[in-house]
């Protein structure tokens, strides 16, 4: 069974950093893309970043230059390094997959999701 589990969330001050991890099981990560999405209170879920099996990467404009996505197929894990965090980065962060799709403008394309990890940026 295909599963994704996020970890690494927490409370951090503005300007701080966090590294999220998405550990996958039940499928061969070598052939799959992983997307990161987030949902702030009262807002729709939005795409943050994604990475394909071939290493193509995309970022939302709001996180470019601050966030870095990477993958370690040997560990079946995809990471999201988040630097220079802002209060508007607060939300629940989810990883998702649907074959080798890397699409951020709509989460409709993704059928497999983790349970999410809370990120709170506050002083």
Could you tell me the number of beta strands?
Answer: 11
Name the structural class.
mainly beta
Relative helix content: under 10%
Distance between the termini: 40 Å
What count of helical segments does DSSP give? 0
Shape category:
globular
Percentage of residues in DSSP E strands: over 45%
Overview of this structure, please?
- The protein is globular, with a radius of gyration of 13 Å.
- With 123 residues, it is an all-beta fold.
- The protein starts with a strand and ends with a strand.
- The chain has strands at residues 3-7, 10-12, 18-25, 34-39, 46-51, 57-59, 67-72, 77-82, 91-97, 112-113, 117-121.
- The mean pLDDT is 97.
Pick out its properties:
123 residues; 7-stranded mixed sheet; 4-stranded antiparallel sheet; 0% helix
């Amino acid at each position: 069974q295909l599963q994704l589990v996020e970890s690494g969330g927490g409370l951090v001050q503005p300007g701080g950093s966090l590294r999220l991890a998405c550990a996958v099981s039940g499928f061969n990560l070598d052939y799959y893309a992983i997307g990161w999405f987030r949902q702030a209170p009262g807002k729709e879920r939005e795409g943050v970043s994604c990475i394909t099996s071939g290493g193509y990467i995309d970022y939302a404009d709001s996180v470019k230059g601050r966030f870095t996505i990477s993958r370690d197929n040997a560990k079946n894990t995809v990471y999201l390094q988040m630097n220079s965090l802002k209060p508007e980065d607060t939300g629940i962060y989810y990883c998702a997959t649907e074959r080798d799709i890397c699409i951020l403008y709509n989460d409709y394309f993704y059928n497999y999701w983790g349970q999410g990890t809370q990120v709170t940026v506050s002083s």
